[in-house]
Amino acid sequence: MRSHLIVGRFGPSDRATVPAGTDEVVTTLDLVASARRLDHGIGQVLKQLGALPLFPTEVGLDLLIMAAHVHAADTRISRASESQDSWTREIRLVVPVSDPNRWEAATHVLTRMLNFLTGDRWTLGFRSRPNAFARLVPARLSRSRGASFDSVSLFSGGLDSLIGAIDLLEAKDGPLLVSHAGDSATSSAQDCLAEALSAHYGGRAFGRLRLWMGFDQGLIKGVGSEDTTRGRSFLFFALATFAGTGLGGEFSVRVPENGLMALNVPLDPLRLGALSTRTTHPFYMARWADLLAALGIPGRIENPYWNKTKGEMVGECANPELLRRVLPNALSCSSPTKGRWHGHGIEHCGYCIPCLIRRAALHDDDATVYTLVDLWGRELDTRQAEGQQVRSLQLAIGRLRARPSLAKLLVHKPGPLSDYPERLDDFADVYQRGMEEVAVLLAGVRTGTT
Protein backbone atom coordinates (compact mmCIF):
# COMPACT_ATOMS: atom_id res chain seq x y z
CA MET A 1 0.00 0.00 0.00
CA ARG A 2 1.24 3.48 -0.90
CA SER A 3 -0.12 6.90 0.03
CA HIS A 4 -0.73 9.37 -2.78
CA LEU A 5 -0.51 13.15 -2.85
CA ILE A 6 -2.02 15.09 -5.75
CA VAL A 7 -1.03 18.74 -5.95
CA GLY A 8 -2.97 21.08 -8.20
CA ARG A 9 -0.99 23.76 -10.01
CA PHE A 10 -1.82 26.59 -12.39
CA GLY A 11 0.89 26.08 -14.97
CA PRO A 12 4.70 25.97 -14.79
CA SER A 13 4.96 29.38 -13.09
CA ASP A 14 3.01 28.06 -10.08
CA ARG A 15 5.92 26.86 -7.95
CA ALA A 16 4.45 27.14 -4.46
CA THR A 17 6.10 24.73 -2.05
CA VAL A 18 3.95 21.81 -0.94
CA PRO A 19 5.77 19.54 1.55
CA ALA A 20 5.27 15.82 0.99
CA GLY A 21 5.51 12.96 3.41
CA THR A 22 8.32 10.46 3.07
CA ASP A 23 5.88 7.71 2.10
CA GLU A 24 3.81 9.74 -0.35
CA VAL A 25 3.81 9.33 -4.12
CA VAL A 26 3.52 12.89 -5.44
CA THR A 27 1.62 13.76 -8.63
CA THR A 28 1.08 17.21 -10.13
CA LEU A 29 -2.31 17.98 -11.63
CA ASP A 30 -1.81 20.84 -14.07
CA LEU A 31 -5.00 22.87 -14.27
CA VAL A 32 -3.99 25.11 -17.18
CA ALA A 33 -4.17 24.12 -20.86
CA SER A 34 -2.72 27.30 -22.37
CA ALA A 35 -2.40 30.92 -21.27
CA ARG A 36 -5.30 31.36 -18.83
CA ARG A 37 -7.58 28.64 -20.24
CA LEU A 38 -8.38 25.95 -17.72
CA ASP A 39 -7.84 22.33 -18.68
CA HIS A 40 -9.80 19.09 -18.17
CA GLY A 41 -12.98 20.52 -19.61
CA ILE A 42 -13.32 23.26 -16.99
CA GLY A 43 -12.46 26.06 -19.41
CA GLN A 44 -15.00 24.68 -21.85
CA VAL A 45 -17.87 24.71 -19.33
CA LEU A 46 -16.96 28.28 -18.39
CA LYS A 47 -17.32 29.13 -22.06
CA GLN A 48 -20.67 27.30 -22.23
CA LEU A 49 -21.98 29.23 -19.23
CA GLY A 50 -20.83 32.51 -20.73
CA ALA A 51 -22.84 31.77 -23.85
CA LEU A 52 -26.06 31.17 -21.88
CA PRO A 53 -25.16 33.69 -20.28
CA LEU A 54 -24.51 32.66 -16.66
CA PHE A 55 -21.83 34.04 -14.37
CA PRO A 56 -20.80 31.61 -11.60
CA THR A 57 -18.90 32.64 -8.52
CA GLU A 58 -15.23 32.06 -7.81
CA VAL A 59 -16.07 29.71 -4.92
CA GLY A 60 -18.33 27.82 -7.33
CA LEU A 61 -15.35 27.43 -9.65
CA ASP A 62 -13.24 26.32 -6.68
CA LEU A 63 -15.75 23.54 -6.09
CA LEU A 64 -15.42 22.29 -9.66
CA ILE A 65 -11.62 22.45 -9.45
CA MET A 66 -11.80 20.52 -6.19
CA ALA A 67 -13.95 17.93 -7.92
CA ALA A 68 -11.38 17.59 -10.71
CA HIS A 69 -8.78 16.62 -8.11
CA VAL A 70 -11.16 14.06 -6.60
CA HIS A 71 -12.03 12.63 -10.00
CA ALA A 72 -8.38 12.38 -11.03
CA ALA A 73 -7.48 10.54 -7.84
CA ASP A 74 -10.52 8.27 -7.98
CA THR A 75 -10.00 7.18 -11.59
CA ARG A 76 -6.20 7.08 -11.80
CA ILE A 77 -5.17 5.36 -8.55
CA SER A 78 -5.67 1.61 -8.77
CA ARG A 79 -7.31 0.00 -5.78
CA ALA A 80 -5.75 -3.35 -6.63
CA SER A 81 -2.13 -2.19 -6.40
CA GLU A 82 -2.33 0.84 -4.12
CA SER A 83 -4.25 -0.52 -1.13
CA GLN A 84 -3.72 -3.32 1.37
CA ASP A 85 -7.24 -4.65 1.08
CA SER A 86 -7.70 -4.11 -2.69
CA TRP A 87 -10.12 -1.30 -1.94
CA THR A 88 -9.18 1.42 0.57
CA ARG A 89 -6.67 3.99 -0.70
CA GLU A 90 -4.93 6.78 1.20
CA ILE A 91 -5.20 9.99 -0.80
CA ARG A 92 -4.14 13.55 0.04
CA LEU A 93 -5.12 16.51 -2.10
CA VAL A 94 -3.71 20.04 -2.03
CA VAL A 95 -6.06 22.27 -4.01
CA PRO A 96 -5.44 25.91 -5.06
CA VAL A 97 -8.58 27.95 -4.31
CA SER A 98 -9.73 31.56 -4.20
CA ASP A 99 -10.28 31.63 -0.42
CA PRO A 100 -8.32 28.99 1.54
CA ASN A 101 -9.80 30.05 4.88
CA ARG A 102 -13.32 29.35 3.66
CA TRP A 103 -12.28 25.94 2.39
CA GLU A 104 -10.36 25.04 5.52
CA ALA A 105 -13.57 25.63 7.47
CA ALA A 106 -15.28 23.07 5.25
CA THR A 107 -12.52 20.44 5.48
CA HIS A 108 -14.22 18.27 8.10
CA VAL A 109 -17.47 17.84 6.19
CA LEU A 110 -15.62 17.34 2.89
CA THR A 111 -13.46 14.61 4.35
CA ARG A 112 -16.44 12.92 5.93
CA MET A 113 -18.47 12.88 2.73
CA LEU A 114 -15.61 11.65 0.52
CA ASN A 115 -14.66 8.88 2.94
CA PHE A 116 -18.28 7.72 2.93
CA LEU A 117 -18.71 8.05 -0.82
CA THR A 118 -15.61 6.20 -2.02
CA GLY A 119 -14.55 4.10 0.96
CA ASP A 120 -11.06 5.65 0.93
CA ARG A 121 -9.13 7.76 3.47
CA TRP A 122 -8.94 11.33 2.24
CA THR A 123 -6.81 14.16 3.61
CA LEU A 124 -7.47 17.63 2.23
CA GLY A 125 -5.42 20.82 2.15
CA PHE A 126 -5.88 24.17 0.46
CA ARG A 127 -3.68 27.04 -0.68
CA SER A 128 -4.25 30.32 -2.49
CA ARG A 129 -4.36 30.42 -6.24
CA PRO A 130 -1.41 32.27 -7.83
CA ASN A 131 -2.07 36.00 -8.27
CA ALA A 132 -2.38 35.66 -12.03
CA PHE A 133 -5.28 33.26 -11.52
CA ALA A 134 -6.92 34.94 -8.55
CA ARG A 135 -9.96 35.74 -10.68
CA LEU A 136 -11.00 33.33 -13.42
CA VAL A 137 -14.73 33.84 -13.85
CA PRO A 138 -15.76 36.71 -16.15
CA ALA A 139 -17.61 39.42 -14.26
CA ARG A 140 -21.24 40.06 -15.12
CA LEU A 141 -21.54 43.27 -17.09
CA SER A 142 -23.85 45.76 -15.38
CA ARG A 143 -26.12 45.96 -18.44
CA SER A 144 -26.07 42.27 -19.28
CA ARG A 145 -29.11 40.16 -18.59
CA GLY A 146 -28.37 36.71 -17.31
CA ALA A 147 -30.19 33.60 -18.45
CA SER A 148 -33.42 32.74 -16.67
CA PHE A 149 -33.49 29.20 -15.29
CA ASP A 150 -35.73 28.04 -12.46
CA SER A 151 -33.52 25.19 -11.30
CA VAL A 152 -30.59 22.96 -12.14
CA SER A 153 -31.30 19.29 -12.77
CA LEU A 154 -28.84 16.46 -13.26
CA PHE A 155 -29.20 14.88 -16.68
CA SER A 156 -27.17 11.69 -16.70
CA GLY A 157 -28.76 10.05 -19.72
CA GLY A 158 -30.56 7.54 -17.50
CA LEU A 159 -34.27 6.86 -17.18
CA ASP A 160 -34.71 8.62 -13.82
CA SER A 161 -33.05 11.82 -15.01
CA LEU A 162 -35.18 11.73 -18.16
CA ILE A 163 -38.35 11.55 -16.03
CA GLY A 164 -37.03 14.38 -13.87
CA ALA A 165 -36.51 16.57 -16.94
CA ILE A 166 -39.95 15.75 -18.40
CA ASP A 167 -41.69 16.52 -15.10
CA LEU A 168 -39.97 19.91 -14.89
CA LEU A 169 -40.74 20.79 -18.49
CA GLU A 170 -44.37 19.75 -18.17
CA ALA A 171 -44.61 22.06 -15.15
CA LYS A 172 -43.35 24.88 -17.42
CA ASP A 173 -40.17 25.23 -15.40
CA GLY A 174 -37.06 26.27 -17.28
CA PRO A 175 -34.37 23.87 -16.02
CA LEU A 176 -30.69 23.91 -16.78
CA LEU A 177 -29.87 20.27 -17.52
CA VAL A 178 -26.35 19.41 -16.39
CA SER A 179 -24.42 16.38 -17.62
CA HIS A 180 -21.05 14.75 -17.20
CA ALA A 181 -20.10 12.60 -20.17
CA GLY A 182 -17.45 10.16 -19.06
CA ASP A 183 -17.73 7.81 -22.05
CA SER A 184 -19.16 7.71 -25.55
CA ALA A 185 -22.17 5.55 -24.64
CA THR A 186 -23.30 7.95 -21.94
CA SER A 187 -22.63 10.96 -24.15
CA SER A 188 -24.70 9.48 -26.97
CA ALA A 189 -27.62 8.77 -24.64
CA GLN A 190 -27.56 12.32 -23.29
CA ASP A 191 -27.53 13.81 -26.78
CA CYS A 192 -30.37 11.62 -28.04
CA LEU A 193 -32.59 12.45 -25.06
CA ALA A 194 -31.81 16.17 -25.18
CA GLU A 195 -32.63 16.27 -28.89
CA ALA A 196 -35.94 14.50 -28.25
CA LEU A 197 -36.85 16.93 -25.46
CA SER A 198 -35.87 19.90 -27.60
CA ALA A 199 -37.99 18.65 -30.50
CA HIS A 200 -41.01 18.19 -28.23
CA TYR A 201 -40.80 21.26 -26.01
CA GLY A 202 -38.87 23.69 -28.18
CA GLY A 203 -35.20 24.51 -28.22
CA ARG A 204 -35.50 27.29 -25.65
CA ALA A 205 -37.50 25.36 -23.06
CA PHE A 206 -34.32 24.38 -21.20
CA GLY A 207 -30.59 24.95 -21.17
CA ARG A 208 -27.78 22.41 -21.30
CA LEU A 209 -24.37 22.30 -19.72
CA ARG A 210 -22.09 19.34 -20.28
CA LEU A 211 -18.61 18.58 -19.01
CA TRP A 212 -16.31 16.02 -20.52
CA MET A 213 -13.56 15.39 -18.01
CA GLY A 214 -10.93 12.70 -18.27
CA PHE A 215 -7.28 12.25 -17.39
CA ASP A 216 -4.37 10.60 -19.14
CA GLN A 217 -3.80 6.95 -18.29
CA GLY A 218 -0.26 7.80 -17.19
CA LEU A 219 -1.19 10.71 -14.93
CA ILE A 220 0.25 8.85 -11.95
CA LYS A 221 3.47 7.21 -13.07
CA GLY A 222 3.72 3.48 -12.65
CA VAL A 223 0.15 3.12 -11.37
CA GLY A 224 -2.76 1.57 -13.20
CA SER A 225 -6.15 3.22 -13.56
CA GLU A 226 -9.31 2.43 -11.59
CA ASP A 227 -12.73 1.75 -13.09
CA THR A 228 -14.99 1.67 -10.02
CA THR A 229 -15.52 5.48 -10.14
CA ARG A 230 -17.25 5.68 -6.76
CA GLY A 231 -16.45 9.42 -6.60
CA ARG A 232 -18.12 10.33 -9.89
CA SER A 233 -21.21 11.81 -8.25
CA PHE A 234 -19.02 14.33 -6.40
CA LEU A 235 -17.97 15.70 -9.78
CA PHE A 236 -21.56 15.60 -11.05
CA PHE A 237 -22.95 17.47 -8.02
CA ALA A 238 -20.07 19.96 -8.05
CA LEU A 239 -20.66 20.77 -11.71
CA ALA A 240 -24.35 21.41 -11.07
CA THR A 241 -23.62 23.55 -8.02
CA PHE A 242 -20.99 25.50 -9.96
CA ALA A 243 -23.62 26.30 -12.59
CA GLY A 244 -26.17 27.12 -9.89
CA THR A 245 -23.96 29.82 -8.41
CA GLY A 246 -24.42 31.66 -11.70
CA LEU A 247 -28.17 32.01 -11.21
CA GLY A 248 -27.64 35.04 -9.00
CA GLY A 249 -29.42 33.94 -5.82
CA GLU A 250 -30.81 30.92 -4.02
CA PHE A 251 -31.08 27.85 -6.22
CA SER A 252 -31.85 24.15 -6.11
CA VAL A 253 -30.03 21.24 -7.71
CA ARG A 254 -32.41 18.39 -8.42
CA VAL A 255 -31.02 14.85 -8.35
CA PRO A 256 -33.65 12.55 -9.89
CA GLU A 257 -33.14 9.07 -8.44
CA ASN A 258 -35.67 6.47 -7.36
CA GLY A 259 -35.71 5.62 -3.67
CA LEU A 260 -34.63 1.99 -4.06
CA MET A 261 -31.42 2.93 -5.87
CA ALA A 262 -30.78 5.94 -3.64
CA LEU A 263 -30.81 3.76 -0.53
CA ASN A 264 -28.98 0.92 -2.35
CA VAL A 265 -29.42 -1.59 0.43
CA PRO A 266 -26.81 -4.35 -0.02
CA LEU A 267 -28.27 -7.63 -1.27
CA ASP A 268 -25.89 -9.60 0.93
CA PRO A 269 -23.13 -8.83 3.49
CA LEU A 270 -20.38 -8.96 0.84
CA ARG A 271 -21.93 -5.99 -0.93
CA LEU A 272 -21.82 -3.67 2.05
CA GLY A 273 -18.57 -1.93 1.16
CA ALA A 274 -16.87 -2.42 -2.15
CA LEU A 275 -19.93 -3.27 -4.23
CA SER A 276 -22.45 -0.87 -2.69
CA THR A 277 -22.47 2.56 -4.31
CA ARG A 278 -23.55 5.56 -2.27
CA THR A 279 -23.85 8.21 -4.95
CA THR A 280 -27.30 9.48 -3.92
CA HIS A 281 -27.60 8.03 -0.43
CA PRO A 282 -29.48 10.32 2.03
CA PHE A 283 -26.42 10.64 4.29
CA TYR A 284 -24.28 11.79 1.39
CA MET A 285 -26.98 14.23 0.23
CA ALA A 286 -27.19 15.70 3.74
CA ARG A 287 -23.44 16.27 3.78
CA TRP A 288 -23.81 18.32 0.62
CA ALA A 289 -26.19 20.58 2.53
CA ASP A 290 -23.51 20.97 5.20
CA LEU A 291 -20.82 21.66 2.61
CA LEU A 292 -22.76 24.36 0.78
CA ALA A 293 -23.60 26.04 4.09
CA ALA A 294 -19.93 25.99 5.12
CA LEU A 295 -18.87 27.50 1.79
CA GLY A 296 -21.60 30.15 1.86
CA ILE A 297 -23.20 28.88 -1.35
CA PRO A 298 -26.98 29.58 -1.31
CA GLY A 299 -27.99 26.29 -2.90
CA ARG A 300 -29.64 23.06 -1.86
CA ILE A 301 -29.33 19.54 -3.24
CA GLU A 302 -32.60 17.60 -3.33
CA ASN A 303 -33.94 14.33 -4.65
CA PRO A 304 -37.64 14.86 -5.44
CA TYR A 305 -38.15 11.11 -5.92
CA TRP A 306 -36.56 9.82 -2.71
CA ASN A 307 -39.82 8.10 -1.69
CA LYS A 308 -40.72 6.69 -5.14
CA THR A 309 -39.83 3.38 -6.72
CA LYS A 310 -38.67 3.40 -10.32
CA GLY A 311 -41.99 1.91 -11.38
CA GLU A 312 -43.83 4.67 -9.54
CA MET A 313 -41.68 7.29 -11.24
CA VAL A 314 -42.56 5.79 -14.61
CA GLY A 315 -46.25 5.51 -13.78
CA GLU A 316 -46.50 9.07 -12.46
CA CYS A 317 -44.45 10.75 -15.19
CA ALA A 318 -46.17 13.95 -16.31
CA ASN A 319 -45.99 12.96 -19.98
CA PRO A 320 -46.15 9.15 -20.23
CA GLU A 321 -46.54 9.13 -24.03
CA LEU A 322 -43.33 11.07 -24.55
CA LEU A 323 -41.54 8.93 -21.99
CA ARG A 324 -42.50 5.69 -23.71
CA ARG A 325 -41.40 7.06 -27.07
CA VAL A 326 -37.91 8.12 -26.01
CA LEU A 327 -37.06 5.76 -23.14
CA PRO A 328 -35.23 3.20 -25.36
CA ASN A 329 -32.46 5.82 -25.66
CA ALA A 330 -32.18 6.27 -21.87
CA LEU A 331 -29.15 4.36 -20.62
CA SER A 332 -29.49 2.44 -17.34
CA CYS A 333 -27.03 -0.45 -17.74
CA SER A 334 -23.96 -0.51 -15.50
CA SER A 335 -21.78 -1.80 -18.37
CA PRO A 336 -23.45 -1.08 -21.73
CA THR A 337 -20.34 -1.99 -23.74
CA LYS A 338 -19.84 -5.51 -22.41
CA GLY A 339 -22.02 -6.93 -25.18
CA ARG A 340 -19.19 -6.24 -27.61
CA TRP A 341 -17.56 -9.50 -26.43
CA HIS A 342 -20.51 -11.27 -28.05
CA GLY A 343 -20.61 -9.18 -31.20
CA HIS A 344 -23.26 -6.75 -29.99
CA GLY A 345 -23.14 -2.97 -30.01
CA ILE A 346 -23.78 -0.63 -27.10
CA GLU A 347 -26.91 -1.92 -25.40
CA HIS A 348 -28.40 -2.91 -22.06
CA CYS A 349 -27.18 -6.27 -20.80
CA GLY A 350 -30.55 -7.01 -19.20
CA TYR A 351 -29.19 -8.77 -16.10
CA CYS A 352 -27.22 -6.25 -14.01
CA ILE A 353 -28.95 -4.64 -11.03
CA PRO A 354 -29.83 -1.36 -12.81
CA CYS A 355 -31.16 -3.27 -15.84
CA LEU A 356 -33.30 -5.53 -13.67
CA ILE A 357 -34.77 -2.60 -11.75
CA ARG A 358 -35.47 -0.87 -15.07
CA ARG A 359 -37.16 -3.94 -16.51
CA ALA A 360 -39.26 -4.31 -13.36
CA ALA A 361 -40.37 -0.68 -13.61
CA LEU A 362 -41.38 -0.89 -17.28
CA HIS A 363 -43.14 -4.27 -17.16
CA ASP A 364 -44.20 -5.49 -20.62
CA ASP A 365 -44.27 -2.03 -22.18
CA ASP A 366 -40.54 -1.92 -22.76
CA ALA A 367 -38.93 -1.29 -26.14
CA THR A 368 -35.39 -1.38 -24.73
CA VAL A 369 -32.91 -3.66 -26.50
CA TYR A 370 -31.41 -6.15 -24.03
CA THR A 371 -28.56 -8.56 -24.70
CA LEU A 372 -30.30 -11.13 -22.50
CA VAL A 373 -33.81 -10.81 -23.89
CA ASP A 374 -35.47 -13.78 -22.19
CA LEU A 375 -34.92 -14.14 -18.44
CA TRP A 376 -37.27 -17.13 -18.27
CA GLY A 377 -36.32 -19.34 -21.24
CA ARG A 378 -33.54 -21.26 -19.52
CA GLU A 379 -31.79 -21.62 -16.18
CA LEU A 380 -29.40 -18.71 -15.62
CA ASP A 381 -25.94 -19.83 -14.49
CA THR A 382 -25.03 -18.29 -11.13
CA ARG A 383 -21.35 -18.90 -11.91
CA GLN A 384 -21.71 -16.35 -14.71
CA ALA A 385 -22.57 -12.65 -14.57
CA GLU A 386 -25.98 -13.25 -16.13
CA GLY A 387 -27.15 -15.28 -13.14
CA GLN A 388 -25.27 -13.78 -10.20
CA GLN A 389 -27.25 -10.56 -9.81
CA VAL A 390 -30.55 -12.30 -10.40
CA ARG A 391 -29.81 -14.90 -7.72
CA SER A 392 -28.70 -12.24 -5.23
CA LEU A 393 -31.98 -10.39 -5.77
CA GLN A 394 -33.99 -13.60 -5.41
CA LEU A 395 -32.35 -14.35 -2.07
CA ALA A 396 -32.84 -10.80 -0.79
CA ILE A 397 -36.49 -10.82 -1.85
CA GLY A 398 -37.02 -14.20 -0.19
CA ARG A 399 -35.59 -12.97 3.11
CA LEU A 400 -37.67 -9.80 3.01
CA ARG A 401 -40.88 -11.65 2.22
CA ALA A 402 -40.23 -14.11 5.03
CA ARG A 403 -39.62 -11.27 7.49
CA PRO A 404 -41.11 -7.98 6.24
CA SER A 405 -40.02 -6.24 9.45
CA LEU A 406 -36.40 -6.59 8.23
CA ALA A 407 -36.98 -3.62 5.93
CA LYS A 408 -36.76 -1.18 8.84
CA LEU A 409 -33.38 -2.64 9.80
CA LEU A 410 -31.89 -3.18 6.36
CA VAL A 411 -32.32 0.42 5.21
CA HIS A 412 -29.72 1.42 7.81
CA LYS A 413 -27.07 -0.93 6.40
CA PRO A 414 -25.61 1.29 3.63
CA GLY A 415 -25.15 4.33 5.89
CA PRO A 416 -26.64 6.50 8.64
CA LEU A 417 -30.15 7.92 8.23
CA SER A 418 -30.02 10.09 11.33
CA ASP A 419 -30.42 13.29 9.29
CA TYR A 420 -33.99 12.28 8.44
CA PRO A 421 -35.66 10.74 11.51
CA GLU A 422 -39.09 11.69 10.18
CA ARG A 423 -38.51 9.64 7.01
CA LEU A 424 -37.46 6.30 8.48
CA ASP A 425 -40.78 4.56 7.89
CA ASP A 426 -40.93 5.98 4.36
CA PHE A 427 -37.41 4.74 3.61
CA ALA A 428 -38.41 1.23 4.70
CA ASP A 429 -41.62 1.41 2.67
CA VAL A 430 -39.98 2.51 -0.58
CA TYR A 431 -37.33 -0.18 -0.18
CA GLN A 432 -39.99 -2.83 0.32
CA ARG A 433 -42.13 -1.62 -2.59
CA GLY A 434 -39.09 -1.43 -4.87
CA MET A 435 -38.06 -4.98 -4.05
CA GLU A 436 -41.61 -6.17 -4.72
CA GLU A 437 -41.47 -4.60 -8.16
CA VAL A 438 -38.38 -6.66 -8.90
CA ALA A 439 -39.99 -9.75 -7.37
CA VAL A 440 -42.81 -9.54 -9.93
CA LEU A 441 -40.26 -9.38 -12.75
CA LEU A 442 -38.29 -12.37 -11.45
CA ALA A 443 -41.27 -14.62 -10.84
CA GLY A 444 -40.55 -17.84 -12.68
CA VAL A 445 -36.91 -17.02 -13.40
CA ARG A 446 -34.69 -20.05 -12.71
CA THR A 447 -31.09 -19.83 -11.49
CA GLY A 448 -28.54 -22.52 -10.70
CA THR A 449 -25.20 -24.13 -11.55
CA THR A 450 -26.34 -27.07 -13.66
Topology overview:
Elements: E1 3-9, E2 24-30, E3 32-34, E4 37-38, H1 42-51, H2 58-76, H3 79-82, E5 90-97, H4 100-105, H5 107-118, E6 121-128, E7 151-154, H6 159-170, E8 175-180, H7 184-201, E9 207-211, H8 232-244, E10 251-254, H9 259-263, H10 282-295, E11 299-302, H11 310-315, H12 320-326, H13 353-362, E12 380-381, H14 385-402, H15 407-410, H16 424-442, E13 447-448
Parallel strand pairs: 1-2, 1-5, 5-6, 7-8, 7-10, 8-9, 10-11, 12-13
Antiparallel strand pairs: 3-4
Helix pairs in contact: 2-8, 5-10, 13-16, 14-16
Characterize the structure shown:
The radius of gyration is 22 Å and the shape is globular. Helix content is 39%, strand content 14%. It folds into two domains: 249 residues, no CATH class; 117 residues, no CATH class. The model has no long low-confidence stretch (mean pLDDT 92). It has 16 helices and 13 strands. The protein is an alpha/beta fold and 450 residues long. Helix 14 crosses helix 16. The protein starts with a strand and ends with a strand. A five-stranded parallel beta sheet has the order 9-8-7-10-11, with helices on both faces.
Core attributes:
450 residues; alpha/beta; 2 domains; five-stranded parallel beta sheet; 16 helices
Number of domain units: 2
Helix and strand content put the structural class at alpha/beta
Quote the distance from N terminus to C terminus: 40 Å
Strand order of the largest sheet: 9-8-7-10-11
Helix count from the secondary structure assignment: 16
The rounded Rg comes to 22 Å
SSE string, helices as H and strands as E = EEEEHHHEHHEEHEHEHEHHEHHHEHHHE
Q: What form results from the Cα inertia axes?
A: globular
Poorly predicted regions are none
Q: Report the portion of residues in β strands.
A: 5-15%
